[in-house]
Amino acid sequence: MSFPRVFNVVGLLVGFTGAAMALTTLVAWQMGDPHFPSLALAAGITLVAGSATFLATRSSPKELRVREGYVIVTLGWIGMGVFGALPYLLTGTIGRPAPAFFESISGFTTTGATVLTGLDTMAPGILFWRSLTQWLGGMGIIVLAVAVLPFLGIGGMQLLQAEVPGLAPERLRPRITQTAKLLWYVYLALTMIQVALYLAGGMDTFDAVNHAFTTMSTGGFSTRDASLGAFQSPYIQWVTVVFMYLAGINFVLHFRAASPRRRLHVHAYRRDSEWRFYTRLILAATALVVAVNWVSGAYPLSPSGTEAVVRDAAFQVVSIMTTTGFATQDYAQWVAPAQMTLLLLMFVGGMAGSTAGGVKTVRVLLLLKHTAIQMRKHLHPRAILVARLGGRAVKDDVLATVVGFVILYAILVTAGMLVMSLLGIDLMTSLGLSASTVGNIGPALGAAGPAGNYAWISEPGLLVLAFLMIVGRLEMYTVLILFSREVWRRN
Is the pLDDT of residue 174 over 60? Predict the structure, then answer.
């Protein structure tokens, strides 16, 4: 383990965080935010700390080893969370370190859980900082660092392997730096398109930029207490549904579909088996929620009622499954089958290579294929059956990894539920809190549902949930492997 190389890159990541705060300071100054001096102080402290750490640990150019990549990603995320809490503390928006750290981690991990209320009257600088943390965390500030690490003499493949969600990062170009840049180009382009569509729907520029940031990152922070429901616009809600859906798709597919080397078409999507499963699951869940809400009499049997029930169902299904966490309705008031559908979707998540959290649809698909094969083997013991994905055979070690991941995910959610219940929270709310933070979703169940927040949770509980958010965002193994003594050996 080379600690100078580790802290060198961590210092760079903290420096990126300070640069983002400087941008926030400019926005606050432009909008006449009275917290402008405090935000400038937070940016200055973060930039100095990051720069000092980076310069003090400069080492000879060497490729990062895998275990160093894991340590950098985890410590980098914690460091960004610590310094990202400064704007909340120095402006007095949040008075205590633990809730401020929770809010910061919730932003960078794109969870969207919040301890804040009164967003409608909150200073614009803090609102912009919350949204910007999610936008940076969505594609991953680590991926941004990968794009510049080669210029510093440090390779970045190990960082990308530790950071990018999914089974394995897929290169679009031979050099990993080019891959990181292309992913950011796609991410930025979709964000700009969404801003333009919001503006066309009557949303002001500040709200449009903030909500585009938190939609494409599948984060879910809003500038309003009522989230997207505050705008009372079917157009804005449908635009959000479309872009939440796009944010839950592997960004490699977006790049291939829009590649200048070929015509713009949907074949890049239709050929992908994970995309087909992801889309069908969303459509099926939406249809189920529509049906049970209609049968329950929650919506009138009229043309306007039909559009409303479909829109509300589609919005909440896509929001929960992509782990965005926006809300237009208090789904805690829906009938039990609709709530149970949303609870199950919390565990699924979006596609690998997207900004969404959760188990990821590719793992769910492989798990279903593996289960089907095991059932068939009971009927045909001598048959040689192989799981296939996209026409290719899936190796047994990959299937074993998927099964192990899902089991570990369930264990982590269960452990989180038990810890929260020990803190005096009822079992259903504890389950919702644990599933929501591990899956980086945000709204949970019970008192932490779409109509509530996390402000009532004790400080130890908030720190536990912050840990679950980091573990879930970094796909568990990246963090849990650090508890092995072998990682910390020098040789």
Answer: no
144 has a pLDDT exceeding 60: no
- Alpha-carbon span 153 to 186, nearest angstrom: 26
Per-residue pLDDT tens over the stretch 64-99 = 677 777 788 888 889 999 999 999 999 999 999 999
Residue 107 phi, psi (nearest 5): -70, -55
Contact 399, 420 (CB under 8 A): no
Spatial separation of the C-alpha atoms in residues 418 and 423, rounded to whole Å: 9
Helix H or strand E encompassing 389? strand 388-389
* Structural Rg of the chain based on CA atoms: 22
> Could you tell me which residues come within 8 angstroms of residue 416 by beta carbon, excluding any fewer than 6 positions away?
430, 433, 434, 437, 438, 464, 465, 468
Please name the amino acid found at residue 249: I
Distance CA 64, CA 162 (A): 12
Q: What is the pTM of this model?
A: 0.89
Helix H or strand E encompassing 393: strand 392-393
Q: Which two tokens stand for residue 248?
A: 């839950």
Q: Report residue 374 as tokens.
A: 């095991």
- Taking residue 34's Cβ as centre, other Cβ atoms within 10 Å add up to 10
Residue among 144, 157, 132, 171 at smallest CA distance from 68? 157
Burial of 407 (0-12, 13-18, 19+ CB in 10 A): exposed
